[in-house]
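Feature request, filed as a ticket because there's no other form

It would be nice if the structure record came with a short human-readable summary line next to the tokens. Right now we just get the raw output. Example of a typical job, pasted below so the devs can see what we mean:
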Amino acid sequence: MNYISGKDLDFKYFFREVAMDGEFGTGSKAFKGIKNVPMKCTLAGYDSGWGKRIALYLTDYMKAECGKRYKKDMFPELRRHEKVGDTTIKKLINITSSENGLKDILERGRLDFDVRNFKDIAAYFMRESVEDFLYRFGASVDEPVTADIKRLIRVPGSLHGGSGMLVKKLALSELEKFDPLNDAVVFDERSVKITVSKPFSVQMKGKDFKIEEGIQEVPEYAAVYLICRGVAEYGHRRNQPNPV
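Raw output as currently delivered:
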């Protein structure tokens, strides 16, 4: 549930420093003899899930701020950070206006720009903007339903586990005329025997059913409904009363 809604996201997890490799990093000739491993800042999971959403949010924010007319009005949220000054703002503008700056964030998770403490600044911005971020990308979750493993996900076209009726997708204009006890019934009129554990009444497909305890014969759709409601079992047992 927390993953779906974004609750308790730890942004520090996504902004990481990793050892460089390749031509100038670990394993390269340039790295030979260097005691301190070269590091670079990167956005974890930039290509999917919450990492991708963070990349989109950051780049959209940078584009929006750089679209303002006056430089003094750009990045007001970041200016509140103690390590952000005019030099940092200028570099952020250069990243945004460069040919591949925002593309590298989105497609490579790149954050190793020539901006001191960029990782900390980005994490700070996300924490300060978390409410707006989750409003845009988070999902409202019905926690009791989502957490209950006994409840089915209500996928259109599936059967409701508590009634045996069809889960249907409706337009708002169809809602007023929709009768679930008729329109959502999918089983037929074939007569089947069930063993009823306690009396039960229900109206389905325009018929009133008053079911007494014992062995009964009812249409298949009514049998499925009663079984799902937990008041009947399919078939019949010996030493039970005959159908009424």
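Something like this underneath would help us a lot:
The CA atoms of residues 5 and 139 lie 5 Å apart.
Residues 2-137 form one domain.
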